[in-house]
Amino acid sequence: MMRYKARRWLVAVVVAGALPLVGGPAPTASASTQPRSFLTVMTRNMDEGTDFGYILAAVGHPELLGPAIVQTFCEVVASNVEQRAARIADEIAASQPDMVSFQEIARWQSFVPLPCTGPTVIDAESALLNELAADGVTYHVVEQLDEFNSSAIPGLPVSFLDRDVLL
User: Fold this and answer.
1) Is the dihedral of CA 120, 126, 132, 136 positive or negative?
2) Which helix (H) or strand (E) holds 140?
3) What pLDDT digit, counting tens, does each position of 20-63 carry?
């Protein structure tokens, strides 16, 4: 239900943003100096970097939940969020859409020592915006919708924020 609301929200924002841009004549080959009368939109799923399999396997076994969450964090580290963000930023820089919507643009933070090497904070939104800047294009966050935030659950070894973002 929440995903449906998020998509409906993004569609409403895109439509509202596009309304002032439509209405003029469509550009033609002979009229290249006319203002654009269309809006280009791209949507991408950043992917959290995990299928949450370790956590799902721990359901019904509370003693396994903490280690499963830590294993999940290590799985995200191994998915190389920064590298994936760089590839998506390159795609955006090449096509330069007017708006970009993202799903599953997650932020992870570990509060415990990890059995894997890597960062203790992984933020796909920051990684993406940094890579866009490195590519020489500027986008800013128009809106962000938090889908799930584990910080409301006390005592977890890792926090997880899943969000949808509109640039």
Assistant:
1) negative
2) none
3) 444 444 444 444 566 767 899 999 999 999 999 999 999 999 99
Q: Which residue has the tokens 């841009």?
A: 21
CA distance 35 to 84: 34
Structure tokens at 85: 């963000």
Give, in degrees to the nearest 5, the angle at Cα 134 between 143 and 107. 45
Cα dihedral value 53, 147, 129, 93, nearest 10: 90
Strands 99-103 and 41-45, by their bridges, are parallel
Q: DSSP class of residue 152?
A: G
20, 32 in Cβ contact below 8 A?
Answer: no
User: Of 158, 98, 105, which is closest to residue 128 (Cα–Cα)?
Assistant: 105
Would you state the structure tokens that stand for residue 164, as one six-digit string? 């949808």
Instruction: Look up residue 128 and give its two tokens.
Output: 């993406």
d(CA 43, CA 158): 28
SS3 127: helix
